[in-house]
Amino acid sequence: MKMTFLKKICDILITIAQWIFFLVSLLLLTATFPTFLVISLFLRGVRKQILFRRIVYYYLKIFFFVLETIVPGLTIKRDKRIAEISSSVIICNHVSYLDGLLACTLNKNIVIFIKGSFFNVPVLGWLVRLAGYIPVAAGGSLKNFYSKRLEYLDQAISAGTSVVIFPEGIRSKNGEISRFKIGAFKIALRHGAPLELVRIINADRLLRRNSILLNTCVRNTVEVASIGRVAPEGTPEELRKAAVDIYQRHLAE
Fold first, then answer.
1. How far apart, in Å, are the Cα atoms of 67 and each of 19, 70, 72, 201, 210?
2. Helix pair angle (45-70, 2-40), 10° resolution
3. Residue-averaged pLDDT of the chain
4. Distance CA 13, CA 8 (A)
């Protein structure tokens, strides 16, 4: 009983510390943001977006470095092969609220389909817009923005950018793979981009479903692994089946 109480206190204190770091670093980013905007004036097209993608990449790399440092028992492993992927559609399973942030640290030159709510966050919202990220299920003020981003994808993929999509659309309730929506597979075929399959493991142990507290003081390895590749051939349904089969085999191991 005493250990459970102490662990809960630890969970609360470390969660507060991580959020303080997040907010303070966001304020620092806000202070330097005008400098990056001035630099971006001398860049055009893809180069401008790459600048802001790298800002997001390094900002969140630092975020997870601090997280790994202050959470007892936590190890974060990323498959190095993912950093070398280019001109592909990367699909990930979805187990935690941390997945989208973690995905941003996988590769310096990626565009991610993320929730539209991220675009309304001060500073971070500006960054993801300037980085070329794409809102999921965009409506209202984001509708035209979403359409323009989709039109841009062919140019971006041809230039070496990869697209990250969570085809389940929602977080898994039990760690199993939910039904994949067809959009990611249509995009892969439309642009002739190979599908790179990535599996996120144990992020849901770090930030559990229906909890705002980090789960600390337990041994936990959050891993992001490359588990397969599917060539852009056949129909979207065939691509989806091939991807699901690979994920199911890995879940069974």
1. 10, 5, 9, 16, 20
2. 160
3. 87
4. 9
